[in-house]
Every structure is written in structure tokens, then in C-alpha cells.
Amino acid sequence: MRLLAFLSTVAVCAAAVNRTATNGWGSTPSQRHYINATQALAAINAAVDYSNSIGVPNDIAILDPSSQLVAFLRMDNAYLGSVDISMKKAKTVTYFNGLFPSYGLLNRSQTMGDLFGIEETNSGLVVFGGGQPIYDYDGYFIGAIGVSGGTVAQDIATSVHGAESIGTTITM
Ligand SMILES: *[C@@H]1O[C@H](CO)[C@@H](O)[C@H](O)[C@H]1NC(C)=O
Ligand SMILES: *[C@@H]1O[C@H](CO)[C@@H](O)[C@H](O)[C@H]1NC(C)=O
Ligand SMILES: *[C@@H]1O[C@H](CO)[C@@H](O)[C@H](O)[C@H]1NC(C)=O
User: What's this model's pTM, rounded to 2 decimal places?
Assistant: First the structure.
């Protein structure tokens, strides 16, 4: 219940997007929208361009709203450990219908936070930055991007660049 209350709060805070039109609450199958391979590749390319501009080799994952992998790239010299982290950042976004970036869970997952331990559910979530929801220009939630390889701030900036190359995203 507390998690649901939290999600409602987040949804209200980010009311710029029409969430009834997404794959989340209130949607029907005919309303669902999914990122396609062309869009996913464009988002990867934008994230790669940004990664190169800041000199950070990244792992970049794109999931559709069902949390299935659409595209992935491990840039030359990107950490092997970041392969899993990038995917789990994106999964953290898609598992909660794209209502918040991965860092939306950071504060409340700390000791004494009301979502303490949530990162251990679902075979592993990532509660720090670098996972961003992707909304298309009509406000439909179409997928998520996860980036890992730099500092958290760099990963957030890179994932936002990727998402915004093909649509919009949410920052908190
Ligand atoms: C949101 O999208 C749904 C589905 O397309 C539509 O029925 C509804 O009128 C929209 N709501 C607003 C406030 O735009
Ligand atoms: C992928 O989605 C974009 C944006 O909606 C669209 O313009 C493009 O035609 C789609 N590509 C394919 C192959 O369906
Ligand atoms: C987390 O808490 C810090 C310190 O109170 C605050 O500055 C920050 O905005 C919070 N982050 C989120 C995503 O709520």
C-alpha cells in the first residue's frame, strides 16, 4: 500500500504526461505503445554520441514497456560489470510503468526509508541514476533506457540524452 501511495504521488507530481494513455494504469491493450527497433537504435546512437563527447565508454540498454530487451550496446572498453547494471536500471523503470527514473527510489530505499530493501525484490533493481523512462511525443510510455559506465551524474545525463533524442523523459 505504501508503495502504491508513493507511485500515486509520483504520478501526480509528473502530471505533464497523460498517463492514462500509457501502458500503465487505465490503459487497454489497444492503447499500448512500444518502442521499435529504429527508435531504439536512434536512442543508442544519441547516447553513444554523448558518451564520446564526455569521454566515457558506456553500456547502454533499451527495454520495451514489458521489460524485454530491444537494443543493447557495450561500447569499446565499457565495464563488463555495467552490462547488468545498465539493464537493471532500465528494468527498474519499466517494472513501475515508467513513472519515475531509477533514482526515484534512492532516498526511500535507504535504511529506515519506507521502501528499504526494495532493490532486492524482482531479482534485483537499481535505485541510483542512469535509468530513464522514454515517452513518445504523444505521451505514451514506450520503453526505458539504462546507462552505466561513468559517474552517476554522467549516467543520468547520458540516459536523458538518449531518451530525449526520440521523445521525452522524466526528471525529479
Ligand atoms: C488521455 O489519453 C486517453 C487515451 O488516449 C484519452 O482517452 C484521455 O482523454 C486523455 N486524457 C487527457 C486528460 O488528455
Ligand atoms: C518506428 O517508430 C517511429 C516513430 O513512431 C516511426 O516513425 C517509424 O516508422 C517506426 N518504424 C517502423 C519500422 O515501424
Ligand atoms: C533525496 O534526498 C535529498 C536530501 O534530502 C534531496 O536533496 C533529493 O532531492 C532527494 N532526491 C529525490 C530523488 O527525491
Answer: 0.83
